[in-house]
Every structure is written in structure tokens, then in C-alpha cells.
């Protein structure tokens, strides 16, 4: 999408907000558009407005957390993920996003716990399995990581990234065996 379309979108959100300034969805939509334009500081203000007008919508907190993640403000992102989860404990994506943030913070065991909760809620999302495999690899649990890569590939055999990740695990395992023999 080109920048002109984003600007048009923002203009329509502004008109909608002028006509109905207490509709939280309009602020959320504008924030999402601004986030896609990498205007993160302004994005946060609009998510705050959405939350102000409807603090029960978990999606607003999750969207704000994603923005904070993109800004490398991981602790603040975790706070927002926790709020999103407290509003909706059944949304697997929130646990997945929190797991990715914990992974980025090198809190790998916690990340695995949140991945497991995401699986419980929605075992059909291949990205959950692939990302868990990556974390398991970082914990040097390579055989278990390969199993999770296999599940991701079974769920979506057309995704080349899953095959690539699994191939890289094999190369790494082979290089470790060679080093052990020396």
C-alpha cells in the first residue's frame, strides 16, 4: 500500500472521529494505520484514546503491545499483553505475541510456557509450532525442536521458511557432531 493510501485512510478516520469522537474503533483504526506508517509515538496516543473510550476491548491492548514491541520497549509491551490477556484469556494470539516478546528478551522458559498456552487454545496455527522450535533450539533441545518444525511443516507444507528453519537445525547439529569428534 502506498503512502497516499495511508494518508487517505487517516483523513477518513479523522472525519469519523469528528462525527463520533467517542467511538473507540475509530481511534484503533487510525492507530493501526499510523503504525503501518512507522509513526509509533503518535500510534500509542491513538491506542490510548481507544482504550479510554472502551477499556474492555482486549484487542486495543494487544495492538498497543505490538507497537511497543516494534519500538523495542519490551517491558512495556509485556504489560500491555498482560492487560489484553486479562480481558480475554481465550485468545491464543495474545499468548503467542507475549511469547515472542519474552523470546526477544531471552526469557526462553517463560516464552515456552506462553507458546504452550497458545497451542492449547488453537493447535492449528503452524507459526506457533515453528516459533517454539526456534526457542527450543536456543535452549539446545534440538531433537524436540525438529519435532515442532515437523508439525509446522505438516500443517503448512508450502511455507518455505519452515523447511529452511528445519534445514538449518540439521546443519547446526552436523557441525556440532564434527566439533565433538575433534
From TrEMBL:
InterPro entries: TPR_rpt, Ycf3/AcsC/BcsC/TPR_MFPF. SMART domains: TPR (SM00028). Keywords: Repeat, TPR repeat. It comes from the Eukaryota. TPR repeats lie at residues 24-57, 58-91, 92-125. This is Tetratricopeptide repeat protein.
Amino acid at each position: 500500500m502506498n503512502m497516499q493510501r495511508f494518508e487517505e485512510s487517516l483523513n477518513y478516520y479523522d472525519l469519523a472521529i469528528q462525527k463520533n469522537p467517542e467511538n473507540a474503533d475509530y481511534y484503533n483504526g487510525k492507530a493501526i494505520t499510523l503504525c503501518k506508517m512507522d509513526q509509533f509515538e503518535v500510534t500509542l496516543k491513538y491506542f490510548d484514546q481507544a482504550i479510554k473510550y472502551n477499556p474492555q476491548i482486549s484487542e486495543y491492548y494487544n495492538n498497543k503491545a505490538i507497537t511497543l514491541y516494534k519500538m523495542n520497549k519490551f517491558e512495556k509491551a509485556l504489560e500491555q499483553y498482560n492487560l489484553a490477556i486479562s480481558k480475554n484469556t481465550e485468545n491464543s494470539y495474545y499468548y503467542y505475541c507475549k511469547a515472542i516478546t519474552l523470546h526477544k528478551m531471552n526469557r526462553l522458559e517463560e516464552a515456552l510456557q506462553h507458546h504452550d498456552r497458545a497451542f492449547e487454545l488453537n493447535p492449528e496455527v503452524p507459526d506457533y509450532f515453528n516459533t517454539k522450535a526456534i526457542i527450543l533450539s536456543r535452549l539446545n533441545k534440538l531433537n524436540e525442536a525438529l519435532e515442532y518444525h515437523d508439525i509446522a511443516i505438516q500443517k503448512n507444507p508450502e511455507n518455505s521458511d519452515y523447511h529452511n528453519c528445519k534445514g538449518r537445525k540439521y546443519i547446526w547439529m552436523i557441525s556440532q557432531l564434527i566439533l565433538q569428534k575433534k
